[in-house]
Specification:
- Keywords: Glycosyltransferase, Transferase.
- The chain has 339 residues and is of the alpha/beta class.
- It folds into 2 domains: 152 residues, Glycogen Phosphorylase B (Rossmann fold), CATH 3.40.50; 169 residues, Glycogen Phosphorylase B (Rossmann fold).
- The chain is 40% helix and 16% strand.
- The strands form 3 sheets. It has a 6-stranded parallel beta sheet, sandwiched between helices. The protein has a 4-stranded parallel beta sheet with strand order 3-4-5-6, sandwiched between helices. It has a two-stranded parallel ribbon with strand order 1-2.
- The radius of gyration is 21 Å and the shape is elongated.
- The two termini are 18 Å apart.
- The mean pLDDT is 91.
């Protein structure tokens, strides 16, 4: 069960869709229940009326449960997840696993304390996401990372550039992703070393970001593409040398994982979920501030041996815990805890 699902696009939507597909391939009987309106699909139940702006309000879950009689309920929750909250409150007779895809603050923990009882197994997508849950609920929190099909990204190998190093960033241009922190990092690094940058994504911050680039005369070397398909994102990564993920409150960082699989060194915040699969000087460099991330980017630009060494490592190894067989096995174990 998930508030958000396709055709909305985001980390939770993609993960729930791909997890259900992998589970069906493994022989499980899976239904995805969502409050997001949209077209019908086999194995998908959309609950609730159509409302303005396509908000995932949702409706009663009783008919769904009575008609399907699930062995286990897997609830996918973010910070504000009214449909997930309703599922946890009304489906207490069904053994449940709740996966938290976001970073909590104190107020969210107080709400979930009323919803999560002994019958619910709790997981999070990273250690960064698990820590505030453990503090708020004082319960075991299992870490099961997001899964990824590695094959499309393994076909990419970073090119060896001539001239300026190409920097890529991919993500929704919204406050939580800190797009202006990204631009400040690029501006700081661009004053010190020759770089070019591509920012992939769209969102409410896009117009102000373009104004920022013009104001600081960065629009000649920073290109904003808007939203791209996953195939087009792969093309961007194929032409890039370094990937930057600036957000502090990134619970996992699927775009960074894709870049790491594509062979790019990743620059990311040390307190984010990206740190679960990016180790300093192994898969990339980490920093604890915007200035630290800019320093890391400058270091990678100036040290081609380090940059190419990390790229070679990333291109020849896989983050085993994030592959779908590993994620599927981890969730099957959690389902078994409550059967």
């Amino acid at each position: 069960m998930s508030d958000c699902f396709l055709p909305r696009l985001g980390g939770i939507e993609v993960q729930v869709d791909e997890l259900a597909s992998v589970q069906r391939s493994a022989g499980h009987d899976v239904r995805v229940v969502t409050a997001t309106p949209g077209p019908p699909r086999d194995g998908l139940v959309r609950v609730g009326p159509r409302v303005p702006w396509g908000l995932p309000v949702g409706g009663s879950l009783r008919a769904v449960l009575d008609g399907f009689a699930p062995d286990v309920l897997h609830v996918h929750a973010g910070v504000v997840s009214p449909f997930a909250w309703r599922a946890l409150a009304t489906c207490r007779e069904v053994p449940s696993v709740v996966t938290v895809h976001s970073l909590w603050d104190g107020g969210v923990g107080a709400l979930y304390r009323r919803l999560i009882g002994d019958e619910v197994t709790v997981s999070a997508v990273s250690e960064a996401a698990a820590r505030p849950i453990r503090r708020a609920l004082d319960v075991p929190v299992h870490v099961v990372p997001n899964g990824i099909d590695t094959r499309p990204w393994r076909e990419i190998r970073p090119w060896l550039p001539t001239g300026a190093v190409q920097v890529a960033a991919v993500g929704r241009l919204a406050p939580r992703k800190e797009p202006f922190t990204l631009l400040r990092i690029l501006r700081d690094a661009g004053r010190r070393v020759p770089i070019r940058a591509v920012v992939v994504g769209d969102g409410p911050a896009a117009p102000a970001m373009r104004r920022y680039l013009r104001h600081h005369r960065m629009d000649g070397w920073v290109r904003m593409t808007g939203r791209l398909t996953r195939e087009e994102v792969r093309d961007v990564l194929a032409a890039a040398d370094v990937f930057v993920a600036p957000a502090r409150r990134e619970s996992f960082g699927l775009a960074a994982l894709e870049a790491r699989l594509a062979g790019l060194p990743v620059v990311a915040h040390s307190g984010s979920g990206v740190a679960d699969f990016v180790r300093p000087e192994k898969e990339g460099l980490l920093g604890s501030s915007a200035a630290g991330l800019a320093d890391a980017l400058v270091r990678l630009v100036g040290d081609s041996e380090l940059r190419h060494g990390i790229a070679s490592h990333n291109g020849s190894t896989e983050p085993a815990r994030c592959t779908w067989p590993s994620v599927l096995a981890a969730f099957e174990e959690l389902y078994g805890l409550r059967r």
